[in-house]
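Aim 2 progress update. The chain analyzed this quarter is reproduced below.
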Amino acid sequence: MTANPMLGAETPPVVDRRTWLRARDELLAREKAHTREGDAIAAARRGLPMTLMPPVAVQGPGGPTPLVDVFEGRRMLIAYFHMWHDGEPFERQCEGCTFSTCHVGPLDYLHARDVTYAVFCQGPYADSAAFARFMGYPFPWYSARDSDPALADGRDFGFIACYLRDGDQVYETYWTTGRGVEALMTSYHALDLTVYGRQEAWEDSPDGWPRLSGHPWRLDGRPTAQWSRPGVHPATA
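Predicted structure tokens:
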């Protein structure tokens, strides 16, 4: 590895382009194998059985909303179950759930495939919906605070659940948590392509590669995504 004083960090060794392309091709073979395995796992996911959901409701802008109505007439639903810290200001709300959900922007491509995306928050509707407005989220937001426990089914909030609607019957088809929710985190997928990656402590990177010294999802005490929101900076408050 090479120290680069301009970057203040180590850098990869410099080689001629032919040598670089050969190394790139070797990695490409592994990437293609990874992609094919990912396709096989996705096929297995599509082949999972499903389980019938009992009649449950969430709290929305119009009051109690049956789960079947959250689909907005579409066939499928992806729901993110968002953690909530009662009585805490916006900057103290879950940085991990903020990181997950703030990446979901245009919904057109989901809607074009008959999929609705919505968030089910652990907090009360009035408080958490104000947070969603502050964040500028474009997707439907509901509270699961007083929902039938069958909705979360004993799972800690911070997970994704997928559902299929057949008429008025709703079935759960898949769920994932932990690093599975990285499916929403496009910043991570992009960072993984760069030479320094995510710059997080757990990564297998060479000595001298930059490492974050603070929380990976917070900056100066706030979830990182909040700093672009109006009202956060004193000059715009």
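The radius of gyration is 21 Å. Residues 12-47 form one domain. These observations will guide the mutagenesis experiments scheduled for the next reporting period.
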